[in-house]
Specification:
This protein is an alpha/beta fold. 37% of the residues lie in helices and 10% in strands. The protein has helices at residues 3-26, 35-45, 68-75, 91-98, 178-195, 200-225, 242-248, 266-278, 292-302, 324-339; strands at 28-34, 49-55, 79-82, 103-106, 233-235, 251-253, 281-287, 306-310. Helix 2 (35-45) packs across helix 5 and helix 5 packs antiparallel against helix 6.
Length: 385
């Protein structure tokens, strides 16, 4: 082989070896704040995105401390997706430190958030916790049922709990209601289209397919929860299932508030023991990313079983709960297996309006384009970033 031929061969091989890297560089580089958002972005973005999650599976976004490497990840990103509603108390500082000036997607934009009602105060009047509150109108996306008027609640009582990681008065865990998660998907879709208009049609098609899969899992969850008595209460590691409770009708209590940073006081633990005796608390559940010793202590003090592990703020590293849809399905099955009674519809589920939980979920009529009239230009000066 002549020198010229050899040179041409080497150039050709080098070009072939460089091709995967070139393709990778053409993908939209997306950074998400935590693992649930990362999975949503992967489903909508498909082969056109590379996704980096700052907080990994089984990680706790409440207590996360960003690294210099995280700032570099943001500096190299084309798109940043985070939850909002003060879920990531460290996110604004990180964006500022990274000098990131690209597109931002706040996944909860357009959601009318639940008020944080201080569920760990255990002031629930379970007769007033009527399940007709959970009758979402899916056709109109009327979130007024989520208003949960807790104005009378003194949020000052929780000031100590939220010191250092203030979620404010709004519950940020909106992905626990799959109806609300549809808004997450629409916001992610629109953010990807803004960052990569050439592949807009594929992002729309992927989002539509994902929304259809979400509708199927939502129906499965409702069928499982339908068989749990309406008066049942359960206890988890922190107060992260308010949206699940509002959507599907199981009452959750916890030793601490919205953030896992808070440690339960002796008084709140004692109050929980009293609630367990007074209410129809049937089981305790670990969470994958909270301090399990608290729930273990409650089990020892009350004799209640620990019925399994639920996933609230982070996906599992492996297994069924390693995807968002799998996580939601897993939680419903764990709750059902621990709490359902043969025949279902006990304790007034039918009277409480659970027939309405089918939601007339006709997704052919349901406009998944989710235009929201946001304009989705996302003038993020409004977000003080």
């Amino acid at each position: 082989m002549s020198f010229a031929s050899s040179s041409r061969w080497l150039v050709g091989v080098s070009a072939m070896l460089a091709l995967p890297a070139a393709i990778a560089n053409e993908r939209v580089q997306v950074v998400t704040s935590f693992s649930i958002l990362a999975d949503m972005v992967k489903n909508v973005g498909g082969e056109h995105v590379d996704v980096t999650s700052l907080v990994a599976a089984d990680g706790d976004a409440h207590v996360y401390s960003p690294s210099p490497g995280d700032a570099r990840s943001l500096a190299n990103a084309d798109l940043v997706v985070f939850n909002g509603l003060l879920f990531e108390g460290w996110m604004e500082r990180l964006i500022s430190a990274s000098d990131y000036s690209g597109a931002l997607v706040t996944a909860t934009d357009g959601i009318e958030p639940l008020s944080y009602a201080g569920h760990n105060e255990h002031g629930h009047d379970h007769e007033e916790h009527a399940h007709e509150e959970h009758d979402h109108d899916h056709e109109d996306h009327d979130h007024e049922d989520h208003d949960h008027d807790h104005d009378e609640h003194d949020h000052a009582e929780h000031a100590d709990e939220h010191a250092g990681h203030d979620h404010g008065s709004q519950d940020p865990h909106a992905w626990q209601d799959m109806h609300q998660a549809e808004v997450y998907v629409a916001n992610i879709r629109d953010g990807l289209i803004a960052a990569d208009a050439d592949n807009a049609d594929e992002y729309r098609a992927n989002a539509e397919q994902y929304l259809q899969e979400m509708a199927e899992v939502d129906a499965e969850i409702r069928a499982l929860i339908e068989e749990i008595p309406a008066s049942t209460s359960v206890i988890t590691g922190h107060d992260s299932f308010g949206y699940f409770s509002s959507a599907y009708g199981v009452t959750f209590l916890s030793p601490v508030g919205l953030s896992t940073e808070a440690d339960p006081s002796g008084a709140s633990m004692a109050a929980l023991v009293d609630v367990i005796e007074q209410e129809n608390v049937q089981a305790l559940f670990h969470e994958n990313m909270t301090n399990q010793s608290i729930i273990t202590q409650l089990a020892e003090e009350t004799g209640l079983p620990i019925a399994g592990t639920l996933y609230a703020d982070a996906l599992a590293s492996e297994g069924e709960a390693s995807t968002y849809l799998g996580m939601m399905r897993h939680n419903a099955h764990v709750l059902h297996d621990a709490l359902a009674q043969p025949g279902g519809h006990k304790d007034g589920h039918e009277e409480a309006g659970h027939d309405d939980h089918e939601h007339s979920h006709d997704h052919e009529d349901h406009d998944h384009d989710h235009d929201h009239d946001h304009d989705h230009d996302h003038d993020h000066s409004e977000h003080s970033h």
